[in-house]
């Protein structure tokens, strides 16, 4: 009795000391990791020391790609400085009917640039679709990042514009590292300045009360959004454009309409890590083998700190959540076919965000909800807004770009993983949407969106 009791005490003590030793080792390892691998994380004090001058940013870009970062000297410059209208200035700022004509021509001709310099699109090639508006400085950096990705030469880059601009066109057409095609959203605000989908002078002002609007008989008096506000044209364009380009790429564009491989969706202010194509391939293989219910890949998550040492191999399997998994999304035709069958859910949901609308589709219409495989260490970054460490007024676009460059540089030896480690995320709280974010109550928007649906 005694001996067995004392031996139990001894065992317990020994157990406690083991735990203690384990704890100490754990803490030491943790500190060591902090010192060695997290030093470039966003919360570290070093972040504020990052040199984000243009010269510093340029020094991180290979010299052969500098051409994408500088605007070409314009021959028409001397005419521009003089305010009077003459022929050269006239051609550099075309009027709306000229723009409409150019857009129609681009969309009809469907010229694939560099088609003869690279092999034709295979059925398993990656197609990268970039939705762009007018922020050229960001687009320049996205192009530079794409240029540095091994495998880019086998892809097709589709630029989907909703703003016609000659400088943008010549930048896109100067891309020489893969096949490129441009498509133009035909219902832009730029080409419809005084009529729907732009702002019609007869439309109800955003904040007008419905009773007043009914008396005034403004165009959309009957259809304020779920929060009682009337349509604001500039906030509706992105969702329309998103829906249009996806429909066009999957069902209309000659070069992609039969494509069965992955389509990756990017935006003008994204920035890709150099191994993003490698990751996509690896994730594509892995989800076909190990996650039969996955139907979306996501290359980006929004993080404040990064740990490529620990996470570069890790992918998380998770229900698709609009606010977390909307960056660098990739899926193929089979997923798109299911989404487009739910067009009414996308087009009539009172939310002007395409991603929240897609979540609505997933939760309320899809037979098989969207389920994502997500890279834990992002391969797509959002450079279009200032980081959390900046107040709006002292925020420079270069600071985020510079930070991303530093993050990727420090991560370099952890990129290109040979295999992936799957982790599973259980969604703690139900991310069920009650009502949308509004901005999409106008029946004309519903109709336009439905009208652009192909399939
Ligand atoms: C930032 O980097 C550039 C180029 O590398 C250099 O010329 C400049 O002096 C640096 N500025 C600071 C504040 O370190
Ligand atoms: C500028 O115009 C001249 C003649 O008008 C032409 O020879 C030259 O190549 C042009 N330069 C550029 C950069 O377009
Ligand atoms: C623009 O050019 C016209 C002649 O073509 C001249 O009369 C005018 O002063 C110039 N304006 C400016 C701002 O240089
Ligand atoms: C636009 O240019 C065309 C010629 O290309 C011209 O006929 C038309 O009147 C112009 N429209 C406006 C609004 O300036
Ligand atoms: C892709 O093409 C290859 C060879 O051309 C063919 O064997 C394969 O079945 C095709 N895959 C699909 C999904 O069409
Ligand atoms: C796509 O498929 C359609 C019908 O199957 C066919 O008529 C068309 O030629 C194909 N297009 C391409 C580019 O392969
Ligand atoms: C398309 O994606 C689904 C998952 O959504 C996958 O099961 C299927 O194999 C993929 N098709 C092709 C041709 O890769």
Q: How many beta-strand elements?
A: 12
- Provide the helix percentage: 40-55%
Name given to the CATH homologous superfamily:
Spore Coat Polysaccharide Biosynthesis Protein SpsA, Chain A
Biggest sheet, in brief? 10 strands, mixed
Strand content: 5-15%
What is the average of the pLDDT values? 86
Shape verdict: globular
Tally the helices: 17
* Gyration radius over CA: 26 Å
Q: What is the CATH domain class?
A: Alpha Beta
The number of distinct structural domains comes to 1
**What does the oligomeric state look like here?**
single chain
Q: N-to-C SSE series? A: HHHHHEEHEHEHHEEHEHEHEHHHEEHEH
The CATH architecture would be Alpha-Beta Complex
CATH topology annotation: Spore Coat Polysaccharide Biosynthesis Protein SpsA, Chain A
Kindly name the structural category: alpha/beta
Point out poorly predicted stretches.
Answer: 1-13, 35-47, 77-91
Name the bound molecules: 2-acetamido-2-deoxy-beta-D-glucopyranose
Could you tell me how far the N terminus lies from the C terminus, measured between alpha carbons in angstroms?
80 Å
Structural notes for this entry:
The chain has 455 residues and is α/β, with parallel strands linked by helices. The protein has a single domain (65-451), classed as Alpha-Beta Complex (Spore Coat Polysaccharide Biosynthesis Protein SpsA, Chain A), CATH 3.90.550. It has 17 helices and 12 strands. It has helices spanning 2-37, 54-59, 77-81, 87-92, 96-109, 136-147, 166-173, 210-216, 233-251, 276-290, 308-311, 322-325, 333-340, 343-348, 354-364, 397-411, 443-451; strands at residues 112-113, 127-132, 156-161, 179-184, 263-267, 270-272, 296-298, 314-319, 329-331, 371-375, 380-382, 421-424. The strands form 2 sheets. It has a 10-stranded mixed beta sheet with strand order 1-4-3-2-5-9-7-10-8-12, with helices on both faces. A two-stranded antiparallel sheet has the order 6-11. The longest helix has 36 residues, at 2-37. The radius of gyration is 26 Å and the shape is globular. The model is unreliable at 1-13, 35-47 and 77-91 (pLDDT under 50). The structure holds 2-acetamido-2-deoxy-beta-D-glucopyranose (7 copies). Substrate binds at residues 131-135, 162, 237-241. Pfam families: MGAT2. Disulfide bonds join 204-218, 291-294, 342-365, 347-449, 386-395. Mn(2+) binds at residues 269, 382. This is Alpha-1,6-mannosyl-glycoprotein 2-beta-N-acetylglucosaminyltransferase.
